[in-house]
Amino acid sequence: MSFAHLTLPTRDVERTTAFLEHAFGYVRKTAPRNIPVDVQWLDIGRGQEIHVFHVEGFEVSPFENEFGRHVAIFHPLSQFAALKQWLVEARAELIDPLRTTPFERFFFREPVNGYVVEVIEDAQSRP
């Protein structure tokens, strides 16, 4: 079994999608025409997707944190500094991990909805 897609509700589909595109290089896909709300699909690689869709009045969970709900992604360690700089410029909130690990990682709260994302060193991208 493999992961197919993750759905992310938002009040602002375009801003959420653009943030994910710029932060991680995800690419938009064509979504089916029979979806009754504003939606964007993103190809995140390996046949996996994120579906960003509009929900009127959406509010992110108050339990978004390291030991609550969050999205975790692998990212090349060599790109951590540039990603952190871009996130700060995009008004994301960088969050230090609460526990130590043998690999590098950090968290951030994205500025559009308040989702918490964990960025984990991608061991496969090590030289």
Task: Tell me about this structure.
The protein is α/β, with parallel strands linked by helices and 127 residues long. The chain has helices at 13-24, 80-89, and strands spanning 5-10, 27-29, 39-45, 48-54, 71-75, 93-95, 105-109, 116-121. It has two helices and eight strands, in the order βαββββαβββ. The strands form two sheets. Strands 1-4-3-2 form a four-stranded mixed β-sheet, covered by helices on one side. A four-stranded mixed β-sheet has the order 5-8-7-6, covered by helices on one side. β3 and β4 form a beta hairpin. It is globular. The chain starts with a strand and ends in a 6-residue tail after the last strand. The mean pLDDT is 95.
